[in-house]
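S1.2 Input.
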Amino acid sequence: MSTDMLPFLLVASDLDGTLFDNNCQISDYSKRVIFRLYHEKNVKLVMATGRHWRCVEAAKNSLVEYFKRAYAELESTKEGETIPEKHHGFYVISSNGALAHDDEGRVLVERHINPDIVKELYCSYGLPNTGLKRKQKQTDNEKECGLPSSPDSSSGNGENKFGEPQANATNVDVGGLNEDPDEFSLEKVRVSAYTAKEWFLTSRFLPEEMMMKKFGYIPIIMEFDPKDPRNDGKSVHDLLPSEGVNKICFRSKDRALLSTIEQELHERFGDQISVAFSSNFCLDVGPSGVTKFSALHEIANHLHIDVKRILSFGDSMNDKEMLENVAKGFLMDNAQLRLKKLLPQCTVIGHNNDDSVAKKIEEVFNLV
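S1.3 Output.
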């Protein structure tokens, strides 16, 4: 079939909670459908994620290997028949659109957060939550930044203006924490910083073996000893980069605290940054005006495709723009409730653990 006759020419899909199953893998069923989508319909897949691009490599490579095997099987069974030019790779949107690569691994999009804002974010939303038993005296950096004021925006029923839990002021303690979220760290909020080259993390939140299984990559953990006299008046956040940062992620089991931080970020920085939950416990901050859709739009222009001929799939708030600005957006059954409420026009499909993206692709493109 000529691509001119197809209503959709590109498919963009989120990974975690969408194309990935609950083990952060792409099933063989889904791989087969993605292969048929390209081979039979000449429609490419764009992987769109909040992950660092290094954390997409394992999944991307598994698809590339599947394509190689599938083409080898075709060549062995169809002697004398011309096989179309082989697939090179996949377009990847990472860091919520701040970075994008083409199907040969070349950078198409790279955006950074203003370095001064990066420093403010570390100062205001990192330092008070390090969990380190820091000395009472403030560093010059803390004096300059101060602690963020908490706007009185509670609805009175323990919820913020987004209808989510409101954190109490006692949840943020400059001198330490009221409770330990897990066995690995005293941090209330872990801070990740993504650059084009590396993922930096203030402390690990999973054992190394599980990190490797989930992400296919181990981030650089900031080694910081608060008892070392050389670190007097310093914080682990002083080790994080401020230049060339594509994304900052605040990770916490305290969703109410993250919701409060989200609200403060909107009120304090406005459109100088982009803010979105990439999961229930990860609040992402990116460059101004940058979303998965902004990167997808640039990829579409690169491929000379109208965005109104793109399908998209997602489950979290960082997918919102990508879902609402294309021809058709599909929400996972396991999508965040807030996203479902904001996008009533999007069709809800099945669960990510049931190959629902692949099944919908089969249906839409008539891959029988």
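S1.4 Remarks. The chain is about 30% helix and 15% strand.
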